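Lab notebook, bench 4. The sequencing result for the construct came back, and we need a structural model before the next group meeting so we can plan mutations. Quick request posted to the team channel:

Model the 3D structure of this chain.
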Amino acid sequence: MTQSQTATESQPPALRSEILAYYERGEEDARLKQGAGRLEFWRTQEVLRRLLPETPARVLDVGGGSGVHAEWLAGDGYEVELVDPVPLHLEQSARLPGVSVRPGDARELPAEDAVYDVVLLLGPLYHLPERDDRVRALGEALRAVKPGGLVVAATINRFACLHDGLQLGHYFMPARRARTDAVLADGRHVPVPEDPLFTTAYFADPAEVPGEFTDAGLVCEGQYGVEGVAWLMGGVEEWLDDPERRETVLAATRRIESEPSLLGVSGHLLTAGRRRP
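Done. Here's the predicted structure in token form:
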């Protein structure tokens, strides 16, 4: 999508019913607030705090869910607007002080051109299996951000399903192993009703994401492994409970966050880019 295109020129498909049903279960609000999920939360937070401009600045949190990140962004002094297609998420995030919310899809943002200092997509690319849709969402972020403004997108890494399956023992189950192997082939995760661990999703090869940024018109500036190898360690939850060990884990993960040979080990990846001035 070029900068001259408007959000009304074509209509995106509706949010898939299975994705809506998955998030209407209400589990997303707690996912990053407890257990090993705190590693993803804290690391995402610290990377963003390094990349974001100083306050005051206007942030559009696209696919912001229940407002897990919008809450601390508003607390830091940013003017935060959250867009999400899930009614439950809008209800939850609307309760947060300093956060305004509206319904919307990443592929057709309810946003004016070039009005935000930062656009975050910390979830939408997970659920867009088609490359054209992912580039379209990034193009919408480009349209909404000011010249020189920052766009940060999160992706689930291609090998996360395999690593998680080995850690939890799911990979030893033939049916789950077959589905995991299929994800490794093309990145597409297709849920089955009898085993609803996750919904329709796309697991990205870290090397392909910069090309999608480029095709959307963004200048890619860096990639950051969120959890590094720490999320695969058996004792990570206990380490995160201990403030001293927690800081050591975060520091260790920080040391390897942009090491090219290790980007695919992390469960999630942040890719940062900018609109040209």
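Residues 1-9 have pLDDT under 50 and may be disordered.
Will bring this to the meeting.
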